[in-house]
Amino acid sequence: MVSKIKKKTLTFQDTIFNLQKYWSKKGCVILQPYDLEVGAGTFHPATTLRSLGPKPWKTAYVQPSRRPTDGRYGDNPNRLQHYYQFQVLIKPSPKEIKKMYLNSLSSIGINHEEHDIRFVEDDWESPTLGAAGLGWEVWCDGMEVTQFTYFQQMAGVECKPVSVEITYGLERLCMFIQNKKSVFDLIWNDEGITYKDVFHQSEKEFSAYNFEYANTDNLFKIFEMLEEETKLLVEKKISLPAYDQCLKCSHVFNILDARGVISVAQRAEYIARIRELTKLIGKVWIESQS
Amino acid sequence: MSELFVELFSEEIPARLQINARNELTKNIKNFFIDNQIKFNENFNVYSTPNRLVLHVDKIPNEIKLSSEEIKGPNVNAPEKALEGFIRSNNTTLEKIFKKSTEKGEFYFFNKESQKIKVSDLLEKNLSEILKKITWNKSMKWANYDLYWGRPLKSILAIFNKKPLNFDFNHINSSNKTFIDKSLEEGMKIFNDFHSYLKFFKQKGILIDQDLRKKIIQNKINEIINKKNLKIEQNDRLIDEIVNIVEKPAVIVCDFDKKFLNIPSEILITTMQSHQKYLPTFDKKNNLTNNFFVVSDIKDTKGFVKLGNERVIEARLSDAEFFWEKNKTQNLVKQVDKLKNINYFKGLGSYFDKIQRMRKLSSLISDDFLISKDKIEIASSICKVDLMSDLVGEFPELQGIVGGHFARFQGFDKEVCLAVSEQYLPNGMESKLPKKMYSVALSLSDKIDSLVGFFGINLKPTSSKDPFAIRRMAISLVRLIVENEIKIKLKDLIVYTCSIYRDQGYEFDIKKIQNELSDFIIERLKNYLKEKKIRQDIIESSTFLLGLDDILKAYKKSLCLNKNIKKEIGFETIAAYKRSSNILNTEEKMSTESLGFADPGLFKNDYEKKLYKKINDIRKYFLSIGKDENYEESLKILSSIKNEVNDFFDNVIVNDEDIIIKKNRLELLNMLCKTFDNYFNFSKIEA
Predict the structure, then answer these.
(1) What are the backbone angles phi and psi of residue A166, rounded to the nearest 5°?
(2) A28, A133, B244, B555: which has the fewest C-beta neighbours closer than 10 Å?
(3) CA quadruple A270, A39, A72, B265: dihedral, nearest 10
(4) What are the pLDDT digits (tens) for B178-201?
(5) pLDDT tens-digit profile of B481-496?
(6) Which residues of A touch B253 (CB under 8 A)?
(7) Taking a C-beta distance cutoff of 8 angstroms, is the pair B68, B113 a contact?
């Protein structure tokens, strides 16, 4: 009877709205995306820096994430150089976090009693952030839809209290909900605008930029300049502007990596340099928190 | 008699950690019982699901009796404080303390009366410590707590004799309740015994006992494959992992589009097993089919689980297919040059440099192996090209195998393709071993090149660290030689490899590499012999005289002696050697002043002559055998000296008054020992 009425498709933007509303009710500060290029929601200072130090903190936000090497000129149904993460960070990690998470899935139409939800071991590490955590990737009927991590270390510092980070891959999740084989077929809004309409040209052009046209000589120079500036700002004890410069460093490095001009040995060295910056910034931030 | 029942409820603990925690808990509880003289029967069980770690021990006495005991305290001359401490720690009074003399002087004593202790009290006092002793390979903290556990621990249920045990473990208070819904962590319920707990969960389809889960999963799978005329591959690791990531197993048969069967099966199998934890199936001819098993943690009443998993595999295989189609046509030979851009290792050049070295080395090996130089050079040249493919980027564990498939598709010689596929094998002690000579030659040259390179830039493993798995590389080298019974001059190959590196402009300390690498490989051979359960003294002896070029010989001789050491031929050989060497050892000068032979003209009796003749017969035997020595035969021949040796020692006094005669007899015995060295140096063998 009721089941005969075809349920309205949950659009891409509905998914975001529902998650925002859900975590808002759980007391999270709903932030907007950070206005710099980052590789993942974790890099937003509301996660990296706020997970350090003693002060409690709850937040949720969408973060556009850039992974230049993953670009496929818009040809691959599962890979993008720019995509969205929905990020939740709560410090200290609440006792009922699993229940909160499973209920958040219900809010976007995934009932855990009808699907095989699995918490599969996945220990997370970010060499550039000097960060590590233990947790799971959450599988829904075999598909990875979320990363669930208890931060143990950030910017080289042990986390106390420990934060929990929940990262939903919005495209993946939506492909699951909307039953689509290609990310470009996702329905964005009620008027039938698709992901392709919104992002296909961008994927194509940015892939060309990342792989072919980015001026590597300039980027190498810019990296050095940004690194220097970060160190200077650390000396001035202003951690947030310093962290911005560091994020830019990280993105420049990612483009250089995609351009294939960084050798394996150099790669490790660049990562270590960024990690050193993060550690310096982490220290200044923690000092500012007490 | 009572039952102990403990449940530790947590968020999902990974399979390997669960198995480890079960073992740790078993060990710690058993030790506690033994230390406290609590009798327990063998019906001792530890179970786990991802969320529940459960201990159940039945038929434990409610009380234990500690017999009376005289406890020794401090010396009577010790400071007052020592006595006070003694009184306090034994919870007694001064009146009950008495003095007594012992061999070491006069001491205070206290007579501890026999007493009865309630096991429940002991448990309450000690359980927290027992839990603390569980060590995790990886553990974490959460929220504001200081406790380390595999994943956040939420509650502890502890029952003894149907009553709750009360104790605190860090921030958690034990109780008689647990969560019945593991997902939402809701619905606390009281349990007073294990039986009702087990029954309650069984009614919900939840199986606490991992062995039972395993049986049910396997039975279900067997039922289906029998009906469908399929097979699955024996894969204990995967099954054990699956068993420990579900509590309510439901086996679901899924399938993928048959068109994907055109992709090399290793790619499909890796996708299913490693990435998705599915069980692939095979037909009776061992060909992969498009059916696979998913073990779900819920009953798939609406079919969502099947549908979802099929979609996931479809997406993953589409990706793989895309890459396979793209990569397989990219000409391997034309890509060799691009390897110049790919770093092999810092300080060891690019992969292009590496394959140049491998080409020369494998070409030299081909002379010994009597295989085509052209073919092995082709295999060396193309073997690393697959590292640049998208497929190896996606499936790094399939490097080599993927390259083999490219080569096959592009029409390379069959043996060349197989060699490329198997170039990384064996990879350690357990891994599959290549048998075909082209594969062995390629794998040998890869490993020797890497070993020389890493030793050249001084990145040898230390006792605790081996980040580049160099030990495994060397043990694989030993296996290649020993298990394929290959006769090669490893020393020459190492020297040659050093010279190739030098030609490429690497300034290595060649002498140092040779010495260190030689010792290192010999050490791995010893480890290998140990794995083969060969006696330690035999292992030590085997490498005493035999070096890098005789790895195969050392192995075979050790194996043969190990097999025969308790039998007559082994036993008598060692006895004869020992009787002779024992006397030589007491005459220290012998070794330095030895002429190396005895003078038959100085013999005084037949026993000496007979022994001398026998030794010479044995020497002739060893001179006559070429490369095809039968080691058992050699031992038999050595042991046949038994009578001559016994007669000699029973009738001849070595220590003759005439120093010249004495020396000659010692020379005779020295000849015997040196002759025995043809097998190997028996001096370290324990009789």
Answers:
(1) -120, 120
(2) A28
(3) 80
(4) 999 998 988 899 999 999 999 999
(5) 999 999 899 999 999 9
(6) none
(7) yes
pLDDT average, residue stretch A84-102:
97
Task: Give the integer Cα–Cα distance in Å for A251 and A159.
Answer: 25
Question: What is the b/e burial string over A34-47, where b = at least 16 CB atoms within 10 angstroms of the residue's CB?
Answer: bebbbbbbbbbbbb
Residue in chain B closest to A103 (alpha carbons) equals: B184
Q: How many residues does chain A have?
A: 290
pTM greater than the 0.90 cutoff = no
Both tokens of A147, joined, read: 């990363």
Amino acid at B322: F
User: Any CB–CB contact under 8 A between A140 and chain B?
Assistant: yes
Nearest-neighbour CA in chain A from B55: distance (Å): 23
Q: What is the pLDDT of residue B589?
A: 60
CB contact under 8 A, A140 and B298: no
In sequence order, what are the residues at sequence separation of 6 or more whose Cβ sits closer than 8 angstroms to the Cβ of residue B433? B425, B426, B479, B480, B483, B484
Q: What is the Cα–Cα distance from A24 to B313, expressed in whole angstroms?
A: 35
Tokens of A52: 């350090």
Residue with token string 């502007």: A241
In tens, the pLDDT along B26-81 reads 999 999 999 888 888 777 899 999 999 999 999 899 998 887 888 888 888 888 88
Q: What is the pLDDT of residue B7?
A: 98
- The kind and range of the H/E element at B254 are strand B250-255
Instruction: Tell me the three state secondary structure of residue B290.
Output: strand
pLDDT for the residue numbered B499: 95
CA distance B110 to B73: 7
Closest to A44 in 3D by CA, of A8, A88, A101? A88
Which among B151, B183, B346 has the least Cβ separation from residue A102? B183
- Asked whether residue A234 carries a pLDDT value surpassing 90, the answer given is yes
**Counting every residue, how long is chain B?**
687
CA distance B27 to chain A (A): 25
Say whether A115 and B151 touch across the interface (CB within 8 A): no
pLDDT above 70 (res A284): yes
Contact residues, chain B, for A263 at CB < 8 Å: 343
State how far residue B557 is from chain A, nearest Cα, in angstroms: 45
What is d(CA A233, CA A284) in angstroms, rounded to the nearest whole number? 10
Picking from B138, B185, B309, the nearest residue to A96 by CB comes out as: B185
Residue from the list A98, A116, A176 with its beta carbon closest to the beta carbon of B297:
A116
